[in-house]
Design brief:
Length: 315
């Protein structure tokens, strides 16, 4: 593993106990310039993780709590009239940052979600007649609570598709939760130091995206995506009625980048089919649209992906 990555993980470990999958997903997002959607109940240290990552890299961090009364201007900014100069001035919103935590994004109405969409995809913001570029690096980590139903606005497929990965965050183990309790009670968290710069991050990003992927592994990756679109052609007739729409072309692009990033984080200079299979659920689960039949029978995207992984031949 690259020593820069090791140092970042060591700093994050000063305030984080467990939740390795969440930390790994944030690093993958930074290496691939992708955005991460986390689904889990409150209190799983999502804010702490992003804050620790930003501190270890010396990056700017902002957090927005999404609520039903939020306006697009609360996110991207707005024009403010200055009576002393008789002109309008631009007040930039919290999206002008490096790491943005969009907490409970599914509680915001469609206008706010669409305002965030431009920032995520185009990495720019339009306020009035002015367009501003967002500085690199820029990562949105959005969270949604699977328990809440009232006052929640389900994210449309077009916006879900903009997220590199959707990660399901679970509870800590008993031992981890005991260690968290001890640290909080004794206030024994360490101080995070900056151990890398933006230049370092760009360097390791270029290294990660240069990791070799053999043609057979590339073909395996594409076959996994197409199996969600054309299940009958892969002897998956039993799951065909459960899929309304398969994964989009962005799934192939993001899986290609994410598999390289995972291999790099593991210290490899090539991508094996194991990395592709490992990252498949995170990249595909939010891009497969289930049919009414699947919802009625309790079939989930993860069940479908498990079936695809078990059926498509590994090179």
């Amino acid at each position: 593993m690259n020593p820069i990555i090791e140092n970042i993980k060591k700093e994050i470990a000063k305030v984080m106990v467990g939740q390795d999958k969440m930390i790994e997903s944030l690093l993958i997002g930074l290496l691939t310039r992708g955005h991460i959607l986390l689904e889990g109940v409150p209190g799983l240290a999502k804010t702490t993780a992003v804050n620790a990552l930003s501190a270890s890299l010396g990056l700017d961090f902002k957090r927005v709590q999404f609520t039903p009364d939020l306006l697009p201007s609360d996110i991207i900014g707005t024009e403010i009239y200055d009576p002393s100069t008789n002109i309008f001035k631009i007040k930039q919103g919290p999206v002008f940052t490096n790491l943005l935590l969009a907490d409970e994004i599914n509680r915001a109405p469609a206008k706010v979600q669409s305002a965030l969409l431009e920032v995520m995809q185009e990495r720019q913001v339009t306020i009035g007649d002015h367009t501003f570029k967002i500085e690199t690096p820029f990562l949105v980590m959005a969270t949604q609570n699977p328990v809440e139903q009232e006052g929640a606005y389900e994210l449309p497929e077009a916006q879900l598709d903009r997220f590199l990965m959707k990660v399901i965050v679970g509870y800590n183990t008993r031992a981890e939760e005991l260690e968290i309790s001890r640290r909080v009670a004794n206030n024994s968290f360490g101080t995070i130091r900056q151990v890398a710069t933006v230049a370092d991050l760009e360097f390791i990003r270029e290294e990660a995206m240069a990791v070799h992927m053999d043609f057979e592994v590339e073909r395996y990756l594409i076959e996994l995506v197409f199996a969600t679109r054309e299940p009958e052609k892969y002897l998956l007739e039993d799951i065909a009625p459960y899929i309304e729409y398969g994964a989009s072309p962005r799934a192939s692009i993001d899986m290609y980048k994410a598999a390289r990033a995972v291999a790099y984080l593991k210290g490899r200079n090539f991508v094996s089919p194991l990395e592709v299979a490992y990252i498949a659920k995170g990249v595909l689960r939010h891009r497969i649209v289930l049919s009414y039949e699947a919802q009625a029978e309790g079939v989930t995207q993860d069940m479908i992906i498990d079936k695809v992984l078990a059926t498509v031949p590994i090179p």
